[in-house]
Amino acid sequence: MLDIRGLCAAIDEKPILHGIDLTVPQGEVHAIMGPNGSGKSTLAYVLSGREDYVVTGGSVTFDGHDLLAMAPEERAAAGVFLAFQYPVELPGVGNANFLRTALNALRRSRGESELDAVQFLKMARAETKRLAMPDDMLRRNVNVGFSGGEKKRNEVLQMAILRPRLAILDETDSGLDIDALKIVADGVNALRGPGFSTLVITHYQRLLEHIVPDRVHVLAGGRIVRSGGPELAHELEAKGYAGMAAEAA
Amino acid sequence: MTAPVQTGAAGFLARFEGLRARLPGGPGPRLAAAEAFRQAGLPGGTSGRREEAWKYTSLRPVAEAAFHEPMSLVGDDSTLLECLPRVDAPRIVFIDGRFRSELSMLPHALRFTRFADDAAFGTLARPDSEPMVALNTMLAEDGALLSVADGVDAGLLLLVSLAMDTPGASVAFHPRHAIRLGVGAKLTVLEMSLGSGAYLHNPVTEVHVGEDATLAHVRLQNESQTAFHLSTVYVEIAGRGTYDSFALNLGARVARTEVHARLIGAKGTTHLNGAQLLGGAQHADFTTVVKHDAPSCVSRQTVKNVLAGRSQGVFQGRIEVARAAQKTDGYQMNQALLLSPDAEIDTKPELEIFADDVKCSHGATVGELDADQLFYLRSRGIPDAEARSMLVHAFLAESLEAVTHEGVREVLEQAVENWWKRQAA
Predict the structure, then answer these.
(1) Phi, psi angles (nearest 5°) of residue A247
(2) Alpha helix positions (H), B27-170
(3) pLDDT digit string, tens, across residues A9-65
(4) What whole-number distance in Å separates Cα of residue B34 and Cα of residue B51?
(5) Which chain B residues touch A93 with a CB distance below 8 Å?
């Protein structure tokens, strides 16, 4: 489903990714672990189409289509979703309006009819309830005045409503206490199925106890240095990134 | 009627000479205003002269144009009303500055007389200090004089100025309006300026807000893109009275919205809010002077500018606090969103404070659309143009919320929506 070949990328002319090869088949959950500065967030931004990251080599295909040639909104329409490490505040934009506009944009692109406000609210309220979010989160401005945990839950809410086919979770666990972490993980697990793939980007192993991956990849210095099953996360936890990097070298 | 017309100040003075015998009211104020205008001329109209009050706005394009007498020979008027919003309220309609009873629906809750029938100049306007007010005083032919009796809530009134396209001939009109609210009276006025073609609309409005009275004065300036709109409003607010104004400026090639508000009784309130949405080579100047002459008054001002193309926005805000005006609470904020590298905003806030126990502040911000916000919206599937539209609306949302009359706010929101569609097209 997602096929990354020899991907190189730079920001401000500084190379960050040095040839990433990674395949995420349909329905699988893959984790990318790595120390700070290894290029994890860069990979997430490149996949979602952030313009200040320049792809300097390699290719990315999604369902056989050239993902890198698509605008961010086209990638979203194709089914790619990035849960931001730092969700952006949008003063003056109501959360419900934001979510409905996004959902209807996606529905339009798929040739489906748009939802009116009543239909949308019914659906959104059901999702907020499932994520143990207060109803007023739909009324408030997007992420404005939200706590760190509320922002992350709001990302999962968007994911639940927009129903992507590939979710990229960029350090979604950072800043979450254990209860919030469980809620977020449950939200992701509820979407798991044959039509849903996930790339979980994380620094720590603890999120992977709740979202159990099919494969784990270790990113260091802009390359994937090791891949393995879920047990690799435990090995990392025991040895640390430095130990792992020393072995790989 | 179609004799060659002169340009600039000389053209207006010649018009006055030709018209003066037919103008309503006594000649005294007209002659004095003509003399003031002859001396001042059009601000920026002649090179080398620069007035501080007109530092960022030059009326050179007005000075270079030749204006004719409005003919107002309109055939089928029914189409004109289609450009008015469907608001259930009485309306007073002027075409090319002249009252048109057949298009109006007169209000019952307040008294309306025509300036043409009762040309009493008010005491607030200062033709000696403001050249455009001198021009208006010299040539004013018609206008709406509105008066709400003590204790009456007169609801909503539409005051409409429509300019007709006169092919090959620009017209100029200088309406003279007055709004007077008695003790405890209430009124919401939605003033709309619309039109097509090239013309000059130069209205002067004198407003008296009585004790405990509230006037909500909402103005939608959506003149033709080739027109000039130069309006001056003078307001006097008595004790515990409120003048709550909002001006949305979208139209005109060159526009200036000038407001002089004076708080003369304790615990008065004034809001001089607004938004300017400009594109192309438009120029719009929002100039206000608030005078706190009585204690414990509040003035609030938030003006937002959205500037595209090569447009230029100007904000000049002056707060004067007299020695007697203790416990004054004054606030002023000007914000600009630049949608293009060629757009420009000029901001000049001024505070002049003679009292020692006051709270006055002002601020200004300038920025572009936030790249992080834009990416966030697009990453959720919202197309670029729609995402930009959402962010511009979000920028304006706070300021439009200040318009409390729901029906009126919807009219403004629709105007913003249409403006955005024009820009995006």
Answers:
(1) -65, -40
(2) 28-40, 60-64, 131-139
(3) 999 999 999 999 999 999 999 999 998 889 999 999 999 999 999 999 999 999 999
(4) 19
(5) 390-391, 394
ipTM over the 0.90 cut-off = yes
- Neighboring chain B residues of A107 at a CB cutoff of 8 Å: none
Tokens standing for residue B88 = 């259930």
Q: pTM higher than 0.80 for the full model?
A: yes
SS (H, E, C) B138-196: HHCCCCEEEEECCCCEEEEEEEEEEECCCCCCEEEECCEEEEEECCCCEEEEEEEEEEC
A115 has a chain B CB within 8 A of its CB: no
Domain residue extents for chain B? 8-72+86-424
CB contact under 8 A, B379 and A93: no
Chain B residues touching residue A48 (CB < 8 angstroms): 379
Among left, alpha and beta (phi > 0; psi -120 to 50; other), residue B48 is left
- Residue of A205, A170, A203, A175 whose CA lies nearest to A188: A170
From the candidates A98, A144, A146, A161, which should be mutated to test the interface with B, based on the most B CB atoms within 10 A?
A: A98
Residue B360 corresponds to which amino acid? C
The Cα B214–Cα A23 span in angstroms is: 68
In chain A, what are the domains?
A: 2-248 (3.40.50.300)
Cβ–Cβ < 8 Å for B179, B212: no
Taking an 8 Å cut-off on Cβ atoms, the answer to whether B372 and A88 are in contact is yes
Q: Does B398 touch chain A (CB under 8 A)?
A: yes
